[in-house]
Amino acid sequence: MRIVMLGPPGSGKGTYASRLTSILGIPHISTGDMVREEIRAQTEIGRKIKEYSDRGELVPDKIIIDLLVERLKKPDAQRGFILDGFPRTIRQAEALERISEIDVVINLNVPDEIIIQRLSNRLVCRKCGAIYNRLTLKPKVDEVCDLCGGELYQREDDKPEVIRERLNVYRRSTEPLIDYYRRKGLIKDVHCNDLMTPPDVIVNKIIEIIGGLKKEK
User: Is 122 a catalytic residue?
Assistant: First the structure.
């Protein structure tokens, strides 16, 4: 099953994808994580990416696509994958079609105010990148990751004023993708209108959608 997760920042793409990966037995591929890993490892590509980032410029599509092509060649992605953070534009979607077929696009619909509340309470592990939330997904010990014991912190771009701007950017650049995929009959909408909805409730909705698609085939 080849899945694309679409939704604004803070809609839960990473949280749901990380749960789906263990249920479906296919990898969660986050292009954001891939980019950060290249920078952290100080690879040649990582240094190029950092140059663009330091200048405040977008990383060119070709670099992201080349990274993705190499990742999809790995054995664990042969049965399928969950893409998170790619594509962001129609141009990227067209490039993805040349790389791989897509079975379904999960479109997460979450009101802005819920996203702002959720993101402004989000915590991320410095060590392993695991995601927590002060309201809905608390760690067992305050500010400490359950998985690796790493320190939890709030990202600078999870401040309310920054979140609003990120939502505006998303609508301008990424929302046309929803129309693009809807015309292709690939979109499945999933709604979350309550901040306190447990992640597993949404994950179960997605699993039902996937189960329905498998029966159709």
Answer: yes
